[in-house]
Amino acid sequence: MSKQVQVIKANRADRSLSTTAETLRVAAYVRVSTDHKEQLESFKSQIAYFTDKIKSNPAWTLVDIYKDEGISGTGTEKRDDFNRLINDCMEGKIDLILTKSLSRFSRNVVDTLKYIRLLKERNIAVIFEEEAINTLTAKGETLITFLSAMSQQYVETLSGSVRHGIRAKMLRGELVGDPEALGYDKDDETGKLVINEAEAEIVRYIFKRYAEGAGGRVIGRELENLGYKTKRGNTTWENQLFLVLLKMRSI
């Protein structure tokens, strides 16, 4: 009697991290915000880097390098290739997206959260190289939790009429809640959140250590030993960071 063999497909989150028999359709997203010579050189370097990286992996097939040149990352309306990337994902053409960093993907925290969730629902991973984050892994869950905390913590406790106004601001990418959120500044002209690159280094460190299982007090002491300061310039992190991580756990 012949035996029936059940075939179990690999999880895409695992397949995006290792070589398997099934080829992944991979795209990269590249963006620079100005036409300055230095940024244009970076633009060309990123395109060459991701093209070579994808083509040299036998488990990957290059779909396209999606690129927006001289376009701000605070909104997605004018980023034609970003929108083309998302549309191609929705049409089932892409399994994995590579990009240099969170800030290259989007400087608008609401947009970042929106598209990460949208892609995750379709089992499409985004890998942010500088932060070493794959959105379909546990570390990616930590990122989503952090972004959720930033964008939702003030909305959920407000009355209906106020909540409507706040949600409208969020959809426009404007700052709601704490104006001193670590890693972000408020753009005075647009009222939107933009990433503070100096503070982003601290946030990435917190992500890394938290994903490794370190608690708030431990990370706080490490930040103090490294000489990092809080948004207000304080050198004491322990209590503040512990409360932040508790909120992250409760989302």
How would you characterize this protein structure?
By secondary structure, the chain is α/β, with parallel strands linked by helices. The protein has a domain at 21-144: Rossmann fold, CATH 3.40.50. The protein contains ten helices and seven strands. The chain has helices at 12-15, 37-55, 80-90, 102-105, 109-121, 138-152, 160-171, 197-211, 216-226, 238-250; strands at 24-32, 60-69, 96-99, 125-128, 133-134, 184-186, 193-195. Strands 2-1-3-4-5 form a five-stranded mixed sheet, with helices on both faces. It has a two-stranded antiparallel ribbon with strand order 6-7. Helix 2 links the parallel strand 1 and strand 2 (60-69). Helix 5 (109-121) crosses helix 6 (138-152), helix 6 crosses helix 8 (197-211) and helix 9 crosses helix 10 (238-250). The radius of gyration is 20 Å and the shape is globular. The termini are far apart. Residues 1-20, 151-159 and 242-251 have low confidence and may be disordered.
